[in-house]
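TL;DR need structure tokens for one chain.
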Amino acid sequence: MSFTINKQLNADEQELTAGIPEEATATTNEPVEAVTEIAVMEEMPVLETAHDDFDWSRDKRNVVAYTADEKIKYDAVYDNTFKQINDGEMIQATVESLTKTDAVVNIGFKSDGLISLNEFRDIPGGVKVGDVIEVMVVEKEDREGNLNLSRKSARITRAWERIVEVNKTGEIVTGLVTSKTKGGLIVDVFGMETFLPGSQIDVKPVTDYDQFVGKTMEFKVVKINEAIKNAVVSHKALIESDIEAQRAEIIGKLEKGQVLEGTIKNITDFGAFLDLGGLDGLLYITDISWGRINHPSEVLKMDQKLNVVVLDFDDDKKRISLGLKQLTPHPWDTLAENLKEGEIVKGKVVNIEDYGAFLEIMPGVEGLVHVSEITWANTPINAKEFFKLNDEHEAKVVTLDKETRKMSLSIKQMTEDPWSAIETRFPEHSRHKGIVKNITPYGVFVELSTGIGGMIHISDLSWLKRFNNPNEYTKVANEIEVMILSIDKDGRKLQLGHKQIEEDPWNSLETVFAEGSIHEGTVIKKDDKGAVVQLPYGLEGYVPARHLMKEDEKLIAADEVAQFMVIEFDRNDKRIVLSHTRLWEQEKEEEKQILKKEKMAEAEQTKKAVKAIQSKVEKTTLGDLGVLAGLKAKLDSDEAAKPAEGTNETAKPAEGTNETAASE
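>> reply
TL;DR here they are.
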């Protein structure tokens, strides 16, 4: 929409037409430019004029003509009556009129400008005609030839200038929280939107941002970005500065031992934070009560007011340590006079360690039950398995030192020492049944009676089997039969045995598994060094790796069944050594011996035959001598094939040799 209004036209015309003949200025319906045209119209139309004394029908020679220089002069005079403006310039403007959507404003330029009424919504009651406002020249002339002005841009520019200034000076500003956004709030400061992070709203964590929307609050500009003209404000900074002033005042008056009133503002696992009136102090969990508590919430509540004593404070770090229990006497100082060693007390388990448990006799007064004072038995006791938190136990006071505030207690001394008559109740070589209480790599701990127990060494579990760990044979809580092997009354130890309840089978097995005997067995374990073989009667034997070789040069595999020869039987060490390789090696040796005997028998028969022939040599013809020579050659061949044992025998000359030679 083109909206051009020449507000000063009449006044300007009077100034421009000064000194011009009246005839040339009589009309107001035509622009000045039309009057000052240099070109003379050939025919002037008769126009309706505002002045009767001007004759438009007169000869054209009577019309006044202006030169080009005069026109330039008069144009300059006309232009100087208006302000010179530039894009981006800030300027004062007057509201001339209002439409349904816009305000018409005059800045003293050739034309008026339009500004949307939306830019005046911040003004209570809206903008009115005659109001003077500051605007920014966005464009002197847009595409449609209009003057483009903006009050909003002017406000933002001025607002940014002020925000930059207060950021430098630290001045406190007032802003309106207009809306909620991700991570915080939007605040209108001087007409410009700024960001208030959620962490900067208050010193306390804030989760509900909606409660602040629409509120006018004080802020401090804490950060600006010149490039994007963005600012961050903080309300928390103002609170902290006030708190800091109060804190400095409080710390300046603090003294150790001073009693202050505080309000609990936060409870944690390790203690509680109290607001002392602008300054926070920590009440550590161990300073809440003389007795043990698992969590501060057991005795404290949020917003609870209570008196505390200043234990310590640090001016530099501004830390204050507070105490609550110190306001009451220590329970050890008020301990009853009749409590002494030997007395029976009742307490609650408040702490369990590897070395024992602490029983709370009364709040703040505790005694230790060492693991050695739990039972008369000398077997290892796990305190964490025996005791449970908050369980109550009766115990006897063993030692009591009020100065060091230490007390030792005993549960086992509540009963008579069963070891005093151990020889009578559990004599050596007697048999008993007990419960497995604990298992270690080297043995099994068995409880025979309350307070009395002993250990079965791993080697005393079985006559026949060897175990890598006792849990391969029995488990905790199982019942097991034992024999008392020996008693150490001073050391409170019993040596127990399980295999001893049966006769040693190794005495009778020596004849069954004699060296050289052959038995069938199954390989149940195998490693690089050898294998363990399960034999009849529940026995196990060991086969060295080199004795696992089969005749086909392969090793016997795990779980394979094969024949084995006993190559060693040690009754004392309860050990049987086996070999499979020795079996087929022995068979080969036996085959060699049989073959050797057969050859020796054959040679002997040949020898006898030769001797028989030689005895008849004298009666033999020359033709028979050839047969005799052949038999002799065969005999010599057989003699040469005989083993070394027969060397001497072969070396002897055959009977009749001399006679044969003489006969030849």
